[in-house]
Amino acid sequence: MFVRIEADYEAMSNRAARIVAELVRRKPNAVLGLATGSTPERLYAHLIRIAREEQLDFSRVTTFNLDEYEGLPASHPESYHSFMQRHLFDDLGLSIEQTNILSGMSPDPTAECADFEAKIRRAGGIDLQVLGIGSDGHIAFCEPGSSLAARTSLVALHPQTIADNSRFFDNEQEVPRKALTMGVGTILEARSCLILAKGEAKAGVWAKMIEGPVSSQVPASALQLHPWVIAIADTAAASQLQNCNYYMHLDRELADQPVLPHWIFQPELDPRRTALATH
Ligand code: PGA
After folding, report:
1. Exposed site from 108, 237, 250, 264, fewest CB < 10 Å?
2. How far apart are CA 29 and CA 33, in angstroms?
3. H/E run at residue 207
4. In the annotation, is 67 catalytic?
């Protein structure tokens, strides 16, 4: 895991946006995995700015979102469909055909989830998955105790997540109780991951994700098993890391190294694929 610490939320978001922009510049038909929540909002704002300033072309990009609340129509202001339109898709001019978000209104969630996985496969797999982390250790809506091999499925939200997300709704009763979400197994198949955290409330769980044991009780810790994860936090979220100085040393030492893995551009060199092919 490449652990990066930035002075504040703006610096962290700008650094993250630069990574996404570099991917799209070098691979105009990139497949982006996207996240919602308050953490990636400024990443998206910086990406929109960079796209304008540098005439970055998103017309051939495909996107997949991590999750969606069950029972919320796309038109609901707090649906993740609405979030993405508001924070990214409208400004980048992305068409409906380019973007993929699970439907929270499907009468058959199992079929909806299977279809979503098939779409990811048809698109050639996700090149870079953007992630936030929940205060209970979730990534996407993979809550504590989720199988680390799980695929996209319908899940029940943890009471902590319901409480955390009640700030977006009139009251806690209005927060949906279930969601459709990529599984940890689905997420780990992305060619690279970019996970972000801001603020002191995430400091404990951020340290568990990076320095604690891999455990289904902290689903984000499964990212330790992935060969290319960039984990960027502001100083508040990084404040409980034991090895802060070492991570900052590595960041300086590796400043001239690529931020994206070579196997995004040469998928046949993906180490996981190579390991499978030799057996
Ligand atoms: P937040 O949510 O960015 O709003 O803190 C992160 C998450 O729940 O994944």
Report:
1. 108
2. 13
3. helix 203-211
4. yes
